[in-house]
Each structure stands twice: as C-alpha cells, then as structure tokens.
C-alpha cells in the first residue's frame, strides 16, 4: 500500500500564518477503485486565496477543515489508472495539492500536454494564474488599445502576466508596482513594462502620479489598500478596475482603513469590478489560444520561485504572503 505525506491545517491563524498552523502527516494513500486514478504530484501551487480558506468564514470556496488535508492546484503523473479516460504516464492538472499522492475519479483530473509547455506552466501562465490575469484585463476591465494600465503586484504570478497581456494587446503605457528594487528591474527589463516603482520606497500615490502624469485608464488590483486608493485618485473619466485580490489585507485582524476616496467613483464614472475565475471557465479556450501562442513564440516570459519538498509547503505559502517570490510560487515534489 502506498503512503505519502500531506499537509493538514493544524489550527486557524490569527493574523499572519505561522508554521505551527500546519501539520505534516504521513498518511495511507487510497488505492484507486473503478473509475479512479492514482497520481504522483510533481508540483503543488500555493496561492494567496488560500489564506482566506484558513478562516472559518463563508466564501466562494469552503474553508479548510482543522485536522484535515488542505487542497489546491497541482500537476502530476498518473501512476495507476482504473479508468479509460486516463492512462498511466499521463500528465494531469487537478485540485488535490498539498500532498505527494492524490487519488480520485478520473473526471477530477484534466490531461495536459507536457510537450507544449513544462508541466509547472499549467499551474502558472497556462493555468488559473494566467487565466485570471487574462480575464481581468480582457473581460473585466475591458482594456482597449491605447489605454494606460497600472498593475499592482507586477512581479507576482498574476501581475506579471497581466502586464504582459496589456502590453501585447496594445496598451499605450503599462505601469507596475513591486516590493523591491530587484523586482522593479525584473518588471522593466524582463517583462517589458514601460514604468515601475518600489512601493516600499515612497507613498504609492506619489509614485503612481509621477509614472502616469496623464492618468490611468485601467487598474489591475492584486493588492488593495493604498494601491487601490492611489489608482482611484489617478483614474481618468470612465476608468475601469479589475479587482483580483487584496493581498495587503489578508492577514489583517482589524478592518482596513480605506480606500478613503470612493467619492470619486461617481463624478469620474468609474467601474470597480471584482471577479472570481470560476465564473469564466467558458473563456478558457480563448485564453489558451492567445496566451499559449505568445508563450510558444517567446512574447510572454515567465519566472518561477520553486521550493523543494512537500514539507516546505507551509514556508513557501508564508513566504508568498510576505512577497518573497518572483513570479509563480511552486513546491516541487521529489520522489522518496
């Protein structure tokens, strides 16, 4: 019988998570029944939205249960199949992450092509991460050629793709914020943004105004807080914001203080729209066609921050929330 390690939620965090909120458990892996497959995970994704699932609150996804394995995006190889839908050796994408092995119905796993892109890319630029960026720019913010676009968290997994989508779709100017001078250089030199700034170096509102003297038309929000407030200040009339996340507030134990300038939304006729990627899966094919072509041609560049070993998943997740990653944060599962 196969055994594998998995990460459980040991306790609910108050404020920033610590390693004590997690437990590494050596568990028996269920053998596949008829219609099932057994998958050995290769890469596991850690993502900001998982912080909200550690709280016992109602949301668009159920909370993680204390004492049980966590879950999330993962990619791996089928090692045993009892379904005609998948065969041993297939590379699959699924939502049974935070563990070394996963067993489930074949319909819970989606075959991906490792010849088209490395398996890890299906958790990043060709997965939910890239899809979130593309939908936010194209459908939610309805970016048009000639728009000035501001992306917060521009060196992160979603923001790095969002800025490149904006550039490739004809934005007049793409501006990004990042949390270090090194990340700013990456955003400018590797990702092709027109301007970028270190949000820790000076108030965001001052740096954004200097980078966008004629205002902005689109804001892709990964951060919330002072970034959203600064964007509202700098919006031109009929500006549009795609509200993807608010990572600056995920560990808050007190209500956020702002944005304090929502009174500008009415006279400037702004649209601030939140969205959940699960509502837009009918657009996945269009996303893959466009972004997959850009990736194959080298027009889109990606970077990954990889941590080795399932036992390091809690540290990788905590590091993600602290902004220690550049690009997609992944945990690589090495066979024992």
Q: Under CATH, the topology of the largest domain is which?
A: Quinone Oxidoreductase, Chain A, domain 1
Q: What order do the helices and strands follow? A: EEEHEEEEHEHEHEHEHEEHEHE
Which strand-content bin applies to the residues?
A: 25-35%
Distance from first to last alpha carbon? 15 Å
The coarse silhouette is globular
Mean pLDDT, to the nearest integer, reads 95
- Helix/sheet category: alpha/beta
Q: Do you know the CATH architecture of the largest domain?
A: Alpha-Beta Complex
Rg, alpha carbons: 20 Å
| Helix coverage percent | 10-25%
Assign the CATH class of the largest domain: Alpha Beta
Q: What's the structural domain tally?
A: 2
Give structural notes.
The protein has 336 residues and is α/β, with parallel strands linked by helices. It folds into two domains: 3-124 and 302-332, Medium-chain alcohol dehydrogenases, catalytic domain (Quinone Oxidoreductase, Chain A, domain 1, Alpha-Beta Complex); 128-278, 3-Layer(aba) Sandwich (Rossmann fold), CATH 3.40.50. The protein contains eight helices and 15 strands. Strands 3, 4, 5, 6, 7, 14 and 15 form a seven-stranded mixed sheet that branches. Strands 10-9-8-11-12-13 form a six-stranded parallel sheet, sandwiched between helices. Helix 2 packs across helix 3, helix 2 (128-140) packs across helix 7 (284-297) and helix 5 (204-211) packs parallel to helix 6 (225-234). It starts with a strand and ends with a strand.
Please tag this protein with its features.
globular, Rossmann fold, 8 helices, 336 residues, alpha/beta, Quinone Oxidoreductase, Chain A, domain 1, 2 domains, 7-stranded mixed sheet, 6-stranded parallel sheet
